[in-house]
Amino acid sequence: MKDFAIFWGCTIQSRFPFLEKSTRMVLDGFNLPYRDVDGFTCCPEKSLVNNIDRGLWVLTAARNIALLDKAGLDLVSPCTGCVSNLATVNSELHLSYKEKEKVNSVLHEVGLEFKGKNKLSHLVPFFHDEVGIHAVKNKVVKPFNGMRIAIHYGCHMIRPSHTLKNDDPLEPKKFDNLIKALGAESVQHMTKLMCCGQGLDRVDQHENSLHFARIKLKELKALGIDAMTLCCPSCYLQFDNNQFLMEKEGEKLGIPILYFTELLGLAMGYKQEDLGLESHRIDVTPFLEKWNRLNGELSHVSDLNRELEEGFGIAQP
Amino acid sequence: MESLNLKLLEICLKCGACYHICPSCLNMEGYDPRLVIKDILAGQYEKWLKSKSIWQCLECHHCLEICFQHYGFENAMTAMRTLAAKKGTTPPQVKKGWDIFMKTGKLGEPTASARKKLNLPEAAKSGAEDFKKIVKIYQERKETKERLKTKD
Ligand code: SF4
Ligand code: SF4
């Protein structure tokens, strides 16, 4: 596997450093060749920068990508927005020679050049495609057998598909495959692909933002799921933080929100305190308790599965 | 943003298919890009620039994905937001975010104390300095271009 730069983005590092922690733990656990690279800025956020100055949006993203060209590294990020923004600019510049020249004439002044030669991946499809389901299964020491988990893909993990090209934009499968590989059931639901709505908080429409969170959380509550999983700091903010604000106002839904890296880390046997789970606003204990209980009760299933995977258990005479 | 393609928008007016998949259309009262598109085509979009509606497009790209023209409502909404920003009628949060971005090249910085507590390594250096350099060059060129345009 080619070495890759890990792109944290602004939100994870400034607001949710524990998500960086669990990501590092699983990357280390798989021995993946990631590197922290100096010099990145905001990806930048399309809905903010592109609305005000498109040229600057393209230029800033192109600069980040040019750093990869200089270092000869692919990029992986645990933030959907970052990858989607970078990939969108990347493909736009590949399509327009004129715009590429314009961008490069500025970047040359700081000793950089946009070539856009390296792969830009979100962590979830990266694990699916590059690490592989089989390798993931092999690392599981404490599976989520019997746990019912709802996946929230997050719009920008898969859309716009003409730039990300990593899954079906309206019927994605890769996150599902990974969650199933950890032993859990991926519970299908109506709002699975619905936008989290966090963007509304960024345009001073907090009530509307809560309205969006509520629609999804209520459906999941009715389905009796054990947790929601996602892999985007913006979606995390929406469902953990805003759910907590709703709780404070007396609207308790109690849906634990787990980042993909946290679920993976737990399945790999890492401790919840090392993964930083106590930093969550919404209590994850009910999820962990049920999981611990089922793991005791269902341990024979895991043993049986292990034996099946190891080949035919016919005793040699 | 790039200029709007009015030919494609005219077809939107007859189609409207993505209305039924758009999360904002389905869940927020009064949100309806079809009305915006109609006004754009009639040259009467001014009133939208101050509306809340244009900021309710979540850029989720659902409309883009199902559109047989591969166009999507979002183009019309982005155009309106861009014009609103030009006129300075952005929501206060957007203005705040923009200022932080222009000042630091980022939307938030890592905190050393929190990192230490989690046993995280020192964060990589930000590219703020180079960012500011290219912003300066970019803006100078843009201004020159605009000056030349007004001279014509
Ligand atoms: S991008 Fe905007 S207009 Fe298009 S479906 Fe999403 S919210 Fe609706
Ligand atoms: S954007 Fe596409 S799907 Fe939506 S109304 Fe226009 S033509 Fe139809």
The whole-angstrom Rg of chain B is 20 Å
Per DSSP E runs of 2 or more residues, the count of β-strands of chain A stands at 8
Uncertain regions spanning at least 5 consecutive residues of chain B: none
Major beta sheet summary of chain A? 4 strands, parallel
- Series of secondary-structure elements of chain A, N-terminal to C-terminal: EHHEHHEHHEHHEHHHEHEHEHHHH
Number of helices of chain A: 17
Features:
heterodimer; A: 317 residues; alpha/beta; Glutathione S-transferase Yfyf (Class Pi), Chain A, domain 2; Rossmann fold; 2 domains; four-stranded parallel beta sheet; 8 strands; 55% helix; globular; B: 152 residues; mainly alpha; 0% strand; binds iron/sulfur cluster
Task: Describe the overall structure.
The complex is a heterodimer of chains A (317) and B (152). Chain A has 317 residues and is an alpha/beta fold. Chain A has helices at residues 9-15, 17-29, 46-52, 54-71, 80-95, 97-107, 123-131, 133-139, 155-158, 161-164, 174-181, 206-223, 233-248, 260-267, 272-275, 285-297, 299-309, and strands at residues 4-6, 34-35, 74-77, 120-122, 148-151, 185-186, 227-230, 257-259. Chain A is globular and about 65 Å long. Chain B is an all-alpha fold and 152 residues long. Chain B has two domains: 6-86, no CATH class; 97-151, no CATH class. In chain B, 59% of the residues lie in helices and 0% in strands. Chain B has nine helices and no strands. Chain B has helices at residues 6-15, 23-27, 33-41, 46-49, 62-66, 74-86, 92-104, 112-117, 128-151. In chain B, α1 (6-15) crosses α3 (33-41). Chain B is extended, with a radius of gyration of 20 Å. Classes of the chains: A alpha/beta (317), B mainly alpha (152). Chains A and B meet through α1, α2, α3, α4 and α12 of A and α5, α6, α7 and α9 of B. The complex binds iron/sulfur cluster (2 copies). One iron/sulfur cluster binds next to α2, α5 and α6 of chain B.
